[in-house]
């Protein structure tokens, strides 16, 4: 059974950093691309970044370049999202998701975690 479990969310002040983790089980990271997607209530889901360990290909949303960095640890079957210089506009539920291709389109992801809340205070 494919499972994705996010952790690392929480409350942080403006300008702070958080590192989110996505622990994958039921498959190896080489089988799927893993993306980070966030959703603010009332807004569309937004793919932030995606990585495929099988060929080290990545996608990073233009608006995230320079602030968010995706990485992976095959041995731990975990994908990370390092988020820096956070602002209140980054407040959202952050999901990791697995799909067959590296993409910025969240509709391509087949499996989803339960999400972790990130709140940035001003």
Low-confidence stretches: none
Total number of helices: 0
Strand content: over 45%
Class by SSE composition: mainly beta
The radius of gyration computed from the alpha-carbon positions, rounded to a whole number of angstroms, is 13 Å
Q: SSE string, helix = H, strand = E?
A: EEEEEEEEEEE
Helical content (DSSP H or I, runs of 4+) = under 10%
Question: Averaged pLDDT, please?
Answer: 96
In total, the number of strands is 11
Largest sheet: 7 strands, mixed
Distance between the termini: 40 Å
Shape: globular
Describe the protein in words.
The chain has about 120 residues and is mainly β. Helices cover about 0% and strands about 55% of the residues. It is built from no helices and 11 strands. The chain has strands spanning about 5, 10-15, 20-25, 35-40, 45-50, 55-60, 70-75, 80-85, 90-100, 110, 115-120. The strands form 2 sheets. Strands 2, 4, 5, 6, 9, 10 and 11 form a 7-stranded mixed sheet that branches. Strands 1-3-8-7 form a 4-stranded antiparallel sheet, with no helix packed on it. A hairpin with a 6-residue loop joins strand 4 (about 35-40) and strand 5. The chain is globular and about 40 Å long. About 30% of the residues are buried.
